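Researcher: Predict the fold of TMM79 protein.
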Amino acid sequence: LLCPCIIYGAYIFLPFDAPLLTTVSARLVYTLRCAAFATFPIVLGMIVSGISRLCSSALEPFGELHREVEIHRTYVSQSIHLFILYFFNMAVLATYLPQELLKLIPLLTGLFAISRLIFWMSYAIGRSFRAFGFSMTFLPLLAMLLWNLYGMFVLEPENLLS
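Model: Structure tokens for TMM79 protein follow.
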């Protein structure tokens, strides 16, 4: 319930508009540029993971990992998988959205980045708290996937493979 409210509030109250994008290639480049910002939590996680591995007091470098190192490694791995799903869904979504709704592309990118950071913090606190951050990442992805399938099979079935 929180994700649609955040996206709607940001869509209404943030004072920016998407540039005029008339071709599919321009929309994909716009999506690619927005998606670059979504990699910030992943790169930050890689840096922290490397530092925690370096500062770990393990005598055996390839031995069993400490909990602190394992948390960051798992976060980075899961974030990369979710980013791939996010990026492909966002690229398809950008081809189906009308011009006036292209403002959703950077808003969804920001939601993805913030929700990954929330997941990371809550995962470090305890495993029982991570559901909120994961749902803020996964449920918008699920909504994008459903909208993309609806767009492909219902709105424009004649352009499915073209």
